[in-house]
Amino acid sequence: MPRIKLQNVEIAYEVQGELDKPCILLVHGLSMSLVAWPPPFLRALRNAGFTLILFDNRDMGLSHSFADYDTPNLAIQMLKSKIGIGVNTVYKLEDMMVDAINLLDYLNIDKAHVLGVSMGGMISQLIAINYPERVKSLVSIMSTTGGPGLPGANKEIVRHVMSKPKSKSFEDILEFTLKTFALIEGPDHPMDPELREIFIRALIERGMKRDGTKRQMLAILASNKRYKRLPEITAPTLVIHGDKDPLVPLACGEATADAIPDARLEIIEGMGHSFPHEFISLITDLIIEHCKASQ
Hints:
Blueprint: E1 3-6, E2 9-16, E3 23-27, H1 39-47, E4 51-55, H2 74-82, H3 93-106, E5 112-117, H4 119-130, E6 135-141, H5 155-162, H6 170-184, H7 193-207, H8 210-221, E7 237-242, H9 250-259, E8 264-268, H10 277-293
Parallel strand pairs: 3-4, 3-5, 5-6, 6-7, 7-8
Antiparallel strand pairs: 1-2, 2-4
C-alpha cells in the first residue's frame, strides 16, 4: 500500500486504473478507511471507464495518526459549538481538504470528479468551494451543510457514540462497533450480520482509532461555517441521500441541494446511513450518469 508524506502528513492511498483516464477522488467519512468502499460500488465505477483515487483520511487507517497530540474533551467541545464558542481542535476539515488536494498534486491530476460520503461529503464540498478549478463535478452522499437548525442524529445513536467499549480488547471494540453500524444502517435494509462483522473486522484491523474518530468529530465541529459558502460552488453537483438516515437525516441532504446552485437531489427510499447492496446499482448509475455528463 503506497504512502506519501504531504506537508508532514503521511497519507495512505490507492489508485485503481490508469491516471490518463477520467478520475474520481473518493473521500470517505468519519472513522472510515479506504477498505470501507463496497467492492461492487468500486467495480461499477471502474467498469464505466473511471480511474479511482482512494485514500485513508488523516488519523484513520494507515494514514498519519495524531495520537501524540492532546485530544480536547469531546462533550465540552460539543457544548461550546452549540452555544457558538470556538472549538479547540488538533485540525479542521479544511486541513483534511488540503490533504486531498496535495494527493491530487502528487499524482499530477489537474482536475477530478470529487465524491464524498458523510464527513467526506463535507470535505468534498470544501474542495469544490476553495478549489473550483480542480473539480469536474461534485457528488455529496448522505452529508450535510453544517448549517444551523438542521436535525441531528437519532438520540439512541448519540448515546451509544458518546459511550465507549467495555475494554480496549479487540472483541469489545468489535462488539461496540457492530452496534454502531447496526444503529446507523436504518431499519429497512440492515446488512447481513455475518457480512457486517467481516466488514467491521477489516476496518478495525486496518486502523479504526477511537481517539482518531474523536479528533475527526472535533474537526467537523470546528468547521461549521461551510454552509455560508455553499452557494459559491460552480461544479455540477449531485446530492444523494436516504430517507431513512438516522445519523444525518434527510433534511440535511435537502438543505445541501438547496444551498448549492442547480444541484440535483436524488432521494433513495429506505436507505439509511450505509450502502445497502440493494441500492448500489442505483447509486452507481446516478454517479456514472452525472460524472459522464460533466466531463
